[in-house]
Amino acid sequence: MTPFGEKLRKLRSEKGITQQQLAKALGVSSAYLSALEHGKRGRPTYHTVLKIIGYYNVIWDDAEELQKLAMLSDPRVVNDTAGLPPLATLVANELSERIAYLDDTNLERIKTIMEAGTGEENRRKLTRRERLIKSRREKLRARQEES
């Protein structure tokens, strides 16, 4: 399950809504919604996230959190380390191979280290890079939906 899927399921549960009811309201299939909740689909589109926000009448901070969770919930992550130092490539590959074996405590430790090690200047770089990656993924998704 992805962070977005977990949050979506929690919202549904709190409101006592079935997957079928929500799927119908959003104009998607219940199979898609189930796959989204269980992390078997990629990130939801921005349009889908907006529909969910509207359906649940989510307010500012919660809407922002839901959008952020959607961006951080791609279950098939690809790390492009081209142009980064060799150590970045090594760490990305090691993490990719070992992440399935890390417990929650170690995952939290890694997350804390990454958050602490990202200064303001690096955050701006990360944001630009994230926007570029998002744009590329959306174009790829659009091409896949067209075919």
Describe this structure in words.
The protein is mainly α. The chain has 2 domains: 69 residues, 434 Repressor (Amino-terminal Domain) (Orthogonal Bundle); 61 residues, no CATH class. The chain has 8 helices and no strands. Helix 1 packs across helix 5, helix 2 crosses helix 3 and helix 4 runs antiparallel to helix 5. The mean pLDDT is 85.
Task: Set out the fold topology.
Blueprint: H1 3-15, H2 19-26, H3 30-38, H4 46-56, H5 60-71, H6 86-98, H7 104-116, H8 120-146
Helix pairs in contact: 1-5, 2-3, 4-5
Can I get a quick summary?
This protein has 147 residues and is an all-alpha fold.
What oligomeric state do the depicted chains represent? single chain
CATH class of the largest domain: Mainly Alpha
Number of domains: 2
Shape verdict: globular
What gap, in angstroms, lies between the N and C termini?
Answer: 27 Å
List the total number of helices. 8
Specify the CATH homologous superfamily of the largest domain: lambda repressor-like DNA-binding domains
Number of strands: 0
Largest sheet: none
Q: Work out the strand percent.
A: under 5%
Low-confidence spans: none
Overall pLDDT metric: 85
Tell me what the CATH architecture of the largest domain is: Orthogonal Bundle
Q: How big is the Rg?
A: 17 Å
Q: What is the H-and-E element order? A: HHHHHHHH
Q: Percent of residues in helical segments? A: over 70%
Might you state the CATH topology name of the largest domain?
434 Repressor (Amino-terminal Domain)
Structural class by helix and strand composition: mainly alpha
